[in-house]
Amino acid sequence: MKILIIKNKRIGDVLVASIVANNLKKIYPDSHITFLCYDYAAPVLLHNPNIDRVWQINDQELKQGLNLFMLAKELRAEKFDLIIDLYTKLQSQIISVLSSSKKRIGFDKRVIPFAYTHKIPILKNRISDYGKAIDDRLNVLRFLNSDVPLDPHPKLYISQNEQTTIESLLKDKGFVIGKPSVMIGVLGSDPTKSLPLTYVAELIDYISTHYDVQILLNYIPAQRPLVDKLLALVKDKSQVLPEIMGKNIREYILIMNNVNVLIANEGGAVHIAKALDKPTFTLYSPYVNKEHWATFENDHKNESLHLKELKPELFSDISSKEIKKQTSELYNHFKPEKIIPRLASFLDKNLTS
What we know:
Helix content is about 40%, strand content about 15%. By secondary structure, the protein is an alpha/beta fold. The radius of gyration is 21 Å and the shape is globular.
């Protein structure tokens, strides 16, 4: 059986969606699985033994109508027996409806007529401790086979050669393998998902003062000017190793695999750390629905905090659209003194040498 999974979205979304591929190999052991995703998200699927082919596409190129139809034509020629569209937007609907596949599964949204042969309802609320994002994807799998035990955990796969190479790089930059370490995601994917830099600096100062740890910063090279501004605000930089950073997603994965815990704004970095079985402390943007993305928080290793939990009155009688417009103003209320008690408890439980 030839299966196509479509998830042309961000890194965290693709990693979470990979549980569908992992479990499909249990349902259809002899299947050949192709995973369609954006090229920048593909590194989270590298070495996954449950995915036979990663079909990478460029998000900007796909926005051009001709390229979309050319892609649909190429995919149609593959003659997939089953298409599972975990994106369910116009692009993926067009691919699905033009595929000629007899079985096409997508979420029950407003879709092109006949895009899917089977529509899976989107859950209104989470039904497990895994988180709603996981529950929705498990629902797709249960439709295909309700008898097979399902594994809800996204996984990342690292080769021995990659591990050896990254250990050498870390040592060269002053990282001590085995000494407690903390990775801090200092910036979100965009300003609306980023705690103010002054607040991040205060959190770093607290950690430096109370814990003997190596502090690494997660950022991309283009964000270095902002990181320099952050470092200028940090009082004691003696424990911070700012030169250790992932130049790309794969490098971040390898570095995170050698770090004890992650503290970060909600996003792909958090899902990567969880897939590596690393404890995470996540700070949610005021406009992000925590119930949807707060995965695996039944485990003490994963904790998170949303401003709504600290100041619910700020969110009364305000629409989600207005919340997003007021994100910057709302972030000002997400003060470090409110975060630190929860953060300290998390670090006390999870920092080990």
